[in-house]
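ZP: hey, is the magnesium ion complex queued? I don't see it on the tracker
AM: it wasn't, my bad. submitting now with these inputs:
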Amino acid sequence: MSITLSVIKADVGGYIGHSESHPDVLAKARECLAKTKKEGLLVDYHVTKCGDDLQLIMTHQQGEDNEKIHKLAWDTFVDCTQVARSLKLHGVGQDLLSDAFTGTIKGLGPGVAEMEFEERVAETIIIFMADKTSAGAWNMPLYKMFADPFNTIGLVIADNMHTGFSFEVHDVKEGKKITFNAPDEIYDMLVFIGAPSRYMVKAVYHRETKEIAAVSSTQRLSLMAGRYVGKDDPVCIVRSQGQFPAVGEVLEPFTLPLLVEGWMRGSHHGPLMPVAIEDSTPTRFDGPPRAVAVGFQLCDGKLVGPRDMFADKSFDPARHQANEIADFMRRHGPFEPHRLPLEEMEYTTMPQVMKKLEGRFTSL
Ligand code: F6R
Ligand code: MG
Ligand code: MG
């Protein structure tokens, strides 16, 4: 059975500030998707949140980039924005950059990750969602899952994974893409994906079967809008077990609270802390950035689950370490590398300050 899994997300208003999603907004989204499921367009859905981001997880048989599905997501975000407006939440409609839907939700602000596949006998899916960070945050975890034998022992000892995976990498500044084969080309690939603000892993494929293994959202809101509009807060879908990494191999990269861009005013480096859904409440200096993971088994497109994967106690040390790193980074205040390089900051006063001081700069 061919199934499409679409994860479409947007920040339509935060509560309190940018730290959480209001229950009424989530309830409205559930109401919209329940109606569509009844009408038959959706096979199933799950509405959840990561911090201030509203997450629509949907299964259907319309394929990727489908206008009806994208319009459903857009209309749902618009309805939820009304709820946010009625409560005077913060940043109402923040990620909706367009006044109207124009055939696809891509380029309009919300983040999108979609994959179509033949459902396996047992189809294990993990969906990652992050808040207060940008799309390149998945580069290192995806590399570890699908190319690093120190993370994924299956690459070494499982027959059905031993030929490796290929990575589709996007240059979001130039609007170009390239595919690298792992393990043969990992040194070339790392030149690019080690610079995650520009080069992002969009998708991963099983090299032998060509099956889709993972897909991420690579939208960069600031590039779309040409100005600060909030961090991208990306999502990522990963298929697991069998010819793909096991659940434990998929989650293992997050035992390292890797440094990502985002946090306060989208202008800082900070540790990505893996947390349970209910703990995706970035509060300390609007952070530190959070990642959540929900797991499902698909059953003829029905979402059996979710299981809140980072709720597990074995991620306690990573959380502890993330908080220690957060303290350490915070002590740098407005200095790099805590503060992002000038060209990467989402907020800046540089043009005005520079203009004001123009006449005071003299040659050395
Ligand atoms: C970062 C983020 C927050 C806001 C900050 C200021 O992605 O969402 O750190 O940038 O709270 O928000 P505004 O400008 O909306 O008052
Ligand atoms: Mg927000
Ligand atoms: Mg957010």
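AM: back. The pocket of fructose -6-phosphate (ligand 1) is lined by residues 17-18, 91, 132, 230-231, 262, 264-266, 286 (CB under 6 Å).
ZP: great, adding it to the tracker
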